[in-house]
Amino acid sequence: MFRRRERNRLRRTSDRFESLLVFVLVFTFLAGAPLLAWQAGKAGYRSDLRAQQWERDNLFPVDAVLVENAAVETAKAIWTAPDGSSRNGIVQATVSDRAGTRIPIWVDRSGALRAPPVHHDPAAQAVAIGIAVFLCVAAAFAGLHRIARALLDRRRERAWTREWLEVGPRWSRDSGRY
Fold it and tell me: Higher model confidence: residue 5 or residue 28?
């Protein structure tokens, strides 16, 4: 309806398109990236809390008693499972541990050996996930801009070459008159 006059007559359609693209990408990034990072961080926080709860419910510390002297940092041991049954197996120990030494281990509900619980910091995990998602979205948008700009530059180069092939010979002939 109302057409705004462009101040710079040398500005091409591809230049205006690139400006619009940058505006859309920046606006979309500023509107969406923080929300996406927040949601990802929140999901990571909840996941970490669930992992902590699972470990509290399913992993138990018990003492294993070595039944032989430790050799090469392992030894046979016995322990009592959470259900009260007796279990045995190979546990990690130091070479100096002797039969009868108590070694703290972690077991599951059935008494099977498990790795010790991992220390979780849900808040730090959430922040790290949020920052990573934010940076990944920024990189994706920068990549989109880079691809679009390369395509536009290729198009501008072709147009410039076509125009030069048309104008160049005339300009070269007329340049000797001055």
Answer: 28
Percent of the chain with pLDDT over 90: 75
d(C-alpha 26, C-alpha 21), whole Å: 8
Cα distance between residue 150 and residue 74, in whole Å: 61
Q: How many Cβ atoms sit within 10 Å of the Cβ of residue 105?
A: 21
Phi and psi for 162 in degrees, rounded to 5? -60, -45
The type of residue at 52 is Q
Q: 78: which DSSP letter?
A: E
| Tokens read off for 141 | 């948008």
Nearest to 152 by CA among 5, 20, 6, 7: 20
**140 SS3 class:** helix
Q: How many CB atoms lie within 10 A of CB 145?
A: 16
With 0.70 as the threshold, say if the pTM is over it: no
pLDDT tens digits for range 10-40: 778 888 899 999 999 999 999 999 999 999 9
Euclidean distance between the first and final Cα of the chain, in Å? 46
Both tokens assigned to 72: 């090469």
How far apart are alpha carbons 114 and 118 in whole angstroms?
11
